[in-house]
Amino acid sequence: MTARTQVLDPEVGKAMSALSAAAKKGLGDSGLAELVQIRASQLNHCAFCLDMHLELARKHGVSEKQLDLLYAWEEAEDLYSERERAALALTEAVTVLTEGFVPDDVYERAARHFDDARLAHLIGLITVINGWNRLMVSRRIPPGGRAW
Amino acid sequence: MTTNETTDNTTSNTTDTTSYVPEHTPRLAWAKLAPDVYKAMIRLDTAARQGVDPVLLELVKIRASQINHCAFCVDMHSKDALAAGESVERIIQLSAWEESQHFYTAKEVAALALTEAVTVLTDGFVPDEVYDVAAKQFDEAELAQLIAAITVINAWNRFGVTCRMVAGHYQAGEHR
C-alpha cells in the first residue's frame, strides 16, 4: 500500500504533537493512554495508529492479554480495571459522535474515576488520537510509514 | 463556558424565548482545566487554516459540526460565516448539500464530500472516489491543509459535545 500523499504542513504536525504531549502528561497514565489510543484507532480503522500504539503499549508494559481482547473489552471485564473501563467507554462515545451525543451515564462513570483536570486531559487525548486517525486514514499512510 | 441561568438570547430575533426549554449547563470547563491542551488546540487551529479559503473553511466547519451534532460549533461557525458575508441560503442548504450542489462551486462540493468522509471514519475509510475528486480540485499542499482543517473542526466538535458546551452565546468574530 502506498500513501495517497505524505504531505502535511510541518506546523500542523508539530501542533498535533504538542497537543498529544499535553493531553498525555495531564492524564499521567501512559498504559491507559495507550489503551485509549488503540481503542479509538480500532474504531476509526487507522492501521498506522494501531501499529504505532500497539508497539508503544508493549513498551509501557500493557499486557498482551489486554491488547488482544481490547476489541471486546466490554465482554472481558476482568482484564480491565473499573477506571480503564470507564475510560474505554468514554473513548467509544467521544469517537462515535456521528451516531449521537456522549451519554450521561458514560460521562458520569468517567467523572467518578477521574478528577476534573484528568478528565479534561482524557477528553483531550481521545480527541487528539481521533485527529491523528483522520490525518493518517485520509492520506492512507501505511503502518510504519512516514507520516510527514 | 460560563453558566447562564437565564434564557436571554441576545442573538435571536425571536421576541419571546421565555417559553423555551431552559438552557443546560456545561459539563466541564475543559479549557480552564487543561489550559495546555487548549493552547495546543489554538496553535493547531491556526496552523491548519493557513492556505484554506476562509469561505470554504466556514462551510466545512459548519458541515462537520452538523454531522457531529456540536451545537456550540454550529452556532459559532454559522455566525462567523454570516458575519463574513456568507448567504443564509448556502448555510441552510449545507445539511442537504448533495441535493443542492448548484449552491456551491465544484471545489466546495469536493471539499464537502471529503468533510463527510473524514468525519464519519467509523463507518469505513475515505473512499477513493471522494479523495480523487478532491485531489482534482486542490493541489497536494492545499488538500493536506483541507484534511488538517477537517481534522481540527472534528477535534473542536469532540470537546464541544463531550463537555456539552452551551450554544447561543457566541458573538461573531469572538474566537477569530
UniProtKB/TrEMBL annotation, chain A:
A Pfam family this chain is assigned to: CMD
InterPro entries (UniProt xref): AhpD-like, AhpD_core, CMD-like
Domain Carboxymuconolactone decarboxylase-like: 10-92
NCBIfam families attached to this UniProt entry: ahpD_dom (TIGR00778)
Protein name: Carboxymuconolactone decarboxylase family protein
Origin species: Streptomyces vastus
From TrEMBL, chain B:
Region listing for Disordered, in residue ranges: 1-21
Extent of Low complexity compositional bias: 1-19
Gene3D superfamilies xref list: AhpD-like
One Pfam entry name: CMD
Residue ranges of every copy of the Carboxymuconolactone decarboxylase-like domain listed in the record: 35-116
Xref: PANTHER family: 4-CARBOXYMUCONOLACTONE DECARBOXYLASE FAMILY PROTEIN (AFU_ORTHOLOGUE AFUA_6G11590) (PTHR34846), CYTOPLASMIC PROTEIN (PTHR34846:SF10)
Protein name: Carboxymuconolactone decarboxylase family protein
Protein species of origin: Streptomyces vastus
